[in-house]
Amino acid sequence: MPELTNAADPMKNLPIGPTKVSFTVENQTRLEIWDNKFLPNRRQYSNGVTYFRTRLSMDWDLHKHLRLFAQGQDARKDGDLRNQGRANENPHDLNELYLDLRKLFDEDLTIRVGRQPLVYGAQRLVGSFEWSNVGRRFDAVRVFWNSKDKHWSADAFASKVVVTNPEEVDEGHPTEEFYGLYLVNRSVKKHAFEFYGFYRTDDNGRTMDELRRRGDLGIGTLGGRVYGKDLLGGLDYEVEGAGQFGEVAEASHRAGAVHAEAGWTFKPKWKPRVMAEFNYASGDDDPTDGRSGAFNN
């Protein structure tokens, strides 16, 4: 809607002394209708739930080496007769607040500290969940770099996932930590190659394995993703695979997952696309052997 876009221009790049600040307002309203009359052994009901999400953002360009970003969020719902709890509610809370130290050492190098989204690849493992009414954020220290020829980029982080609390200010998870390194190579035209390693740990001592033994969680993930588009006049493809290792309480953990997809986009202006997709993730073959085999995403 270009009229609304143009109307928002006066809120961008407002001068404050030698600095510039921009403001953004976003509202998302969504209606979901649930009709569960075909589910067996369940009370039949129909229910329409309306979700409301409003975000107000400030992007302050303080210096060529310094940027401050802040975003407040008000997320609510109305008409939930199913009484599904408050997972989709987060009234008047801080959604993002981070500081960028950028263009360091004459390189395209940035250090970002604070509450922020983490989005990697196709978001199969790490994403911001924008389809939900609340989204997902992390309290993180992050370092990302781009090579001068733009062929390589690297992104490393140490974080805690933010736990949504509708009654109080959201905080990072008290015992769970999440680390990662994500590398991308774009040296081949129309293709990209991604390599990643993640490590998730939770030292609460209450994680339970399949034999009901309690302990800590420590799962590492190594994977890669390759994709290409606009090939041979309309072909695109994507392949991603990951393997996991570690411990779930006292059980050893070994798991894996694969995604493969190919499509063809036709030339008409409305660009119809046909595609085929395959997905696999390992499960646990034997629930009594004391070994964990279910892929953890």
Overview of the molecule:
The chain has 297 residues and is an all-beta fold. Helix content is 2%, strand content 61%. It has one helix and 16 strands. β3 and β4 form a beta hairpin. The radius of gyration is 22 Å and the shape is globular. The chain starts with a helix and ends in a 5-residue tail after the last strand. The mean pLDDT is 92.
Could you provide a short overview of the structure?
With 297 residues, the protein is mostly beta strands. It has one helix at 2-7; strands at residues 14-16, 19-35, 46-63, 66-78, 90-101, 108-116, 138-146, 152-163, 171-172, 176-185, 191-208, 214-231, 235-248, 251-265, 273-281, 291-292.
Beta-strand portion reads: over 45%
Give helix and strand order, one letter per element, not per position: HEEEEEEEEEEEEEEEE
Mean pLDDT across all residues, rounded? 92
Radius of gyration: 22 Å
How far the N terminus sits from the C terminus, by CA atoms, comes to 37 Å
Residue share in helices? under 10%
The largest β sheet comes out as: 16 strands, mixed
Summary tags:
61% strand; 2% helix; 297 residues; 1 helix; mainly beta; globular; 16 strands
List the helices and strands and how they pair.
Blueprint: H1 2-7, E1 14-16, E2 19-35, E3 46-63, E4 66-78, E5 90-101, E6 108-116, E7 138-146, E8 152-163, E9 171-172, E10 176-185, E11 191-208, E12 214-231, E13 235-248, E14 251-265, E15 273-281, E16 291-292
Parallel strand pairs: 14-16
Antiparallel strand pairs: 1-2, 2-3, 3-4, 4-5, 5-6, 6-7, 7-8, 8-9, 8-10, 10-11, 11-12, 12-13, 13-14, 14-15
